[in-house]
Amino acid sequence: MFDAKSRYANLAPYPVTDRRGRMVMVVPTPDAPDEALLGYHRRLQGERLDHLANAYLGDGAGFWRICELADVMLPDALAEAREIPIPPKTRR
User: Fold this and answer.
1) φ, ψ of residue 83 in degrees (nearest 5)
2) Which of 22, 51, 55, 69 has its CA at 20 to 30 Å from residue 45's CA atom?
């Protein structure tokens, strides 16, 4: 269901009854990784998180690691940030 590199790949879905009475399968929210801080990137106009993740982490889909380090749920929350925290390329 998820890509092998996804943070959701090894989480077991479980059933939940929604407000309309239907049984649906959900995936739990993974724990935030214990990330170190490599440094900060001074953001230029037009730079996107997936491009920064690709440049610093070697994986554009790793933008969520930047979001986790910045303690934001959605990438758009960093849209106006002047400095973006960057984790190291490899995780601990």
Assistant:
1) -125, 135
2) 69
Domain residue spans in the chain? 1-31, 33-92
Q: Please give the Cα distance from 47 to 49 (Å, whole number).
A: 7
- For residue 29, what are the CA distances in angstroms to 13, 33, 38, 43, 59? 10, 12, 25, 29, 21
- Residue range 34-46, pLDDT digits in tens: 889 999 999 998 8
Asked if residues 66 and 85 have their Cβ atoms less than 8 Å apart, the reply is yes
Both tokens of residue 22? 């239907």
Structure tokens at 67: 């979001």
Look up residue 26 and give its two tokens: 């959900």
